[in-house]
Every structure is written in structure tokens, then in C-alpha cells.
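Review form for a predicted model. The reviewer records the input and the model, then writes brief findings.
Reviewer: anonymous (R2)
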Amino acid sequence: MKKIGVLGLQGAVEEHIRAVEACGAEGVVVKKKEQLDEIGGLILPGGESTAMRRLIDRYGFMAELKQFAESKPVFGTCAGLILLAKRIEGQEDAHIGAMDITVARNSFGRQRESFEETIRVNGIAEDFPAVFIRAPHIVSVSDHVEVLAECRGRIVAVRQGNLLGCSFHPELTDDLRMTEYFLSMARIPV
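Model under review:
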């Protein structure tokens, strides 16, 4: 059985592991770059992207994460989406920069403006319960990026080949359809 890793430096790690395992796959908390060789796909969890970047740099993960994202499935949620983006509004440097999108941080407001809204995710769900917590949104996408969902007139989910990203937190709901979709990208039966 292929394993799905969840970058375990900061953020909603255990919630993603539970979702992966609820789909019948094996979830692994990735804390060492050598573990990337053992997994068939990687989830970059929600959390705080600046803190995650500092930890990625401290533990020397960046080159390996970039290389992994070139060919293997990666799913970035909320802060993980920011890590995947090639461009971040108001910031000169990207993080992993693998996904040809521009994101705006905290675009739905601060913590107290967090909300849940039912959205349509193309090809995945007509009625997905999306949880937005200090969520970014996708300002623009290149021609080879597929827009999967919008909320309140803003792009909130995209796919670019082996890369999947969303502004919301699917791991904080009981709805497994986004996780199942990612597992199918990693060719793991659910």
C-alpha cells in the first residue's frame, strides 16, 4: 500500500492523518526529509505559513519539497496552498513555488471572521462543507491551472497536474471527498 505523508512541522497534521486513514490509506507524519522517499503523495497542512517556512528552512526541507512537487502529488490546504503558490501578494519571495498561481493571504479576514460555507467543487462535490479560517484566496491562475471552486466570487480550489490546492480546511469536516480525490491523484484506491 502506498503511503500518504503529511508534513508534520506545524499545523493541522493529525486532522489530515485521520482523514487519510478514514479513507483506508496509510498516513505518515513527515518530519524528516528522508521520509519523502517512502510516500506516494504529500499533504501540506493548514497552519501558519510563515512559521511553516521557518521550520522548513531550519530542517533543510526546501530543496526536497520542490523536487517532490515536480513529479509527485502534493495537496496544499490553506497555509499549504500559500507554500505551493508561485506568487504571494505583498511578498517578494515564494516558498515552494510549484503552482502557477498568485495568492492573497488572510483575504477572508482574521480569526473572528472564520466561517463555513457549502460550495461546489468541480468534479468532486456539489455540496462540500468548506471551513475558512484566516483563509487565503487565489487571485489569479495561469492557463494550465484548473479552477475547481469559488466562494464569494473568489477562487478557492485549483489543480495543476499533480498539484492540488484549496483555501479551506477539508480535514476539519467529516466530508472525505477532497481527501479521496487527492488519494485518487496519488493512485491510491479508496
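Findings: The longest strand covers residues 125-132.
Further findings: The radius of gyration is 15 Å.
Recommendation: see findings above.
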